[in-house]
Amino acid sequence: MYRRVVSSLPQEPVFPHDLEQLGFFIDDKDEVKSITNPEEGFNYRISKNGRYNDLRKEAVNTCLRKNVLERLAGIGMEIIRLPFGAEEGQPHVPILVSRGLQEKSRVLIVFGSRNEDLGIWCFRRLGANGCSISDGSAIGLVKRLHSYHSSETEVPGIIIANPGQLLWHRRGKCAVTFNTWNSMPRKSAVSREYRIDDTKNRIPGNQDPEAHIQYVFNEVVKKLVSENARLDILATAGGMEVLRFLDDNWATWKGRINAIALTNPLHWADDILDEGFQRFLKDRGSAYVVSDEPIGQLLHDPQFGCAVFSSGETGYGEAIPSTAHKIILDSFHAVAADLDFTNPEILVLGSARDLDFQERSAGSQDQEAGDLHEHEEDNISIPAAE
Q1: Which residues pair with 310 in a beta bridge?
Q2: Nearest residue to 262 via CA among 249, 280, 281
Q3: CA distance to 259, 355, 357, 359, 374, per residue, from 363 (Å)
């Protein structure tokens, strides 16, 4: 029996983790552009080999991750390792918190996508397609939050959670996303991806997005945030795990939350079971969706059980925070300033799924009626030729 040794197999392409060596630079608009053609941004598909494209993209993403974290550190954000007490080389997931968090009377908690890196909304738009690195990441959000400072108003604190980087890379001694895991160098270009060990490659207390969200609320908030501070919640990329946690624990958290905003939500109004949380979403919850309507336009959509607005994003749901973070923060600011704030009136909670079912049923009945007429026409008897 014969076999090929690894050294004889085709090797993986290797790319430097340096933006200039990769052929790109960041222009004065804070966008990633090609050195050879400054009018062109990053183009993923330059080879018929998908693995080549993926590894090149990961190399560029590594550079952008470093850029974003360095710039966030420069505007007052600090890395905290979870679980608390974890050393740098031990399994941990990093989150970002603003300095002086315990002194803040109001704190924004941001839960990003389970598919993206810490502080990044989506790589699809980060520094591309007219979207700056600042707007494509939490940099723009933190700067906007700082703009609320005045002689009468303090800058709110902020916690940026990390439900995406929950796989522990033992050799690199860092937490990574699933996409980064699959882009790690392999023994050869035809080797399979590395297996995920549920013990060695998971992070204690933060094994998955659900566990991470519980840890942020039950440990991070209780340890780092004043018990008198009010909370604003921004859940991007659907926010299903955040909604489930609050629905199950509303009795504990109802007295502390000012408002909730969701981007690209995926739930139905009647997925929420706690009546108190239902009322809260109706009065102080907001959803921002892909829409051709002007940014901030109120949309009459009963599906989510809260006020629904156009995000100004017309293409990708995961990119909504890039376009809508300013109006989301403005709405949080308005709610915090008005103790009696309530949303515009919307349809009764729980009616959305029924309406959708009725519409689909009516359409189905119309189709059946049309089919019946077609069959009747097909069955018309034609007299035989005489």
Answers
A1: 289
A2: 281
A3: 37, 12, 10, 6, 16
Give the mean pLDDT of 129-143: 93
Tokens describing residue 127: 């520094």
Q: Give the C-alpha separation, 67 to 187, whole Å.
A: 29
Name residues whose C-beta falls within 8 Å of residue 314's C-beta, 6 or more positions apart in sequence.
290, 291, 292
For residues 131, 136, 138, 141, the Cα torsion angle rounded to the nearest 10 degrees is 40
* 180-205 per-position pLDDT tens digit: 999 998 888 888 889 999 999 999 99
pTM, to two decimals: 0.88
**How crowded is the C-beta side of 36, counted as CA atoms within 13 Å?**
5
Backbone angles phi, psi at 168, to 5 degrees: -95, 120
Reported as a single tens digit per residue, the pLDDT across 38-68 is 999 999 999 999 999 999 999 999 999 999 9
Q: How far apart are CA 102 and CA 47, in angstroms?
A: 50
The vertex-182 CA angle with 176 and 185, nearest 5°, equals 95
Dig out the tokens for 250 from the structure. 């509303």
The three-state DSSP-derived secondary structure of 206-255 is CCCHHHHHHHHHHHHHHHHCCCCCEEEEEECCCCHHHHHHHHHCHHHHCC
Checking if the pLDDT of 350 tops 70, the result is no
Structure tokens at 55: 């590894």
State which of 124-133, 145-154, 188-197, 264-273 shows the largest mean pLDDT. Answer: 264-273
